[in-house]
Design a protein that fits this description.
This protein has about 150 residues and is an alpha/beta fold. It has 4 helices and 7 strands, in the order αβαββαβαβββ. It is about 25% helix and about 25% strand.
């Protein structure tokens, strides 16, 4: 049986709606189509990549500039980097906050969030969600900010 994380998906939708999302090509391909209600920016080494309804770039700094400019236009104060692992590793040193979902289970996988120094971050909020018919594993939804 595939696992389900309904609470995580609902939280993701809530916090990212109306805000720019930056992702790598593989993450975008896993979505199958642009996320509605958000500027989708795809970072790829393939300079010829073009996707309807998506901004593409081969530069992480340009992706963040595009997202920041959209935040200014929309009056938003956050942009989101939503994967994959390489994109997280490139951008985490620049982040001042991030939303983290802790899955309370051992899950086999081939892609992991990069290691980071948890002591450099302060937990602002935590919502614990038990396993249920909609969530196959208990999760904790956290908002972390970089410690001063």
């Amino acid at each position: 049986m595939p696992w389900k994380l309904h609470a995580d998906m609902q939280n993701f939708r809530r916090v990212t709606m109306g805000k720019p999302v930056v992702m790598g090509r593989k993450t975008f391909q896993s979505l199958k189509k642009p996320l509605p209600g958000r500027l989708n920016i795809v970072l790829s080494r393939d300079r010829s990549l073009r996707v309807d309804g998506v901004r593409t770039t081969d530069s992480a700094s340009e992706a963040l500039e595009i997202a920041s400019a959209q935040c200014e236009i929309d009056g938003q104060d956050e942009l989101f980097v939503i994967g994959g692992a390489e994109i997280y590793a490139l951008t985490l040193p620049l982040a001042d906050r991030f939303y983290l979902t802790e899955i309370h289970a051992q899950i086999d996988g081939d892609t992991w969030f990069p290691a980071f120094d948890r002591s450099a971050w302060t937990e602002v909020t935590r919502v614990d969600v038990p396993a249920s018919d909609k969530d196959s594993h208990a999760v904790s939804l956290l908002l972390l900010t970089r410690s001063a």
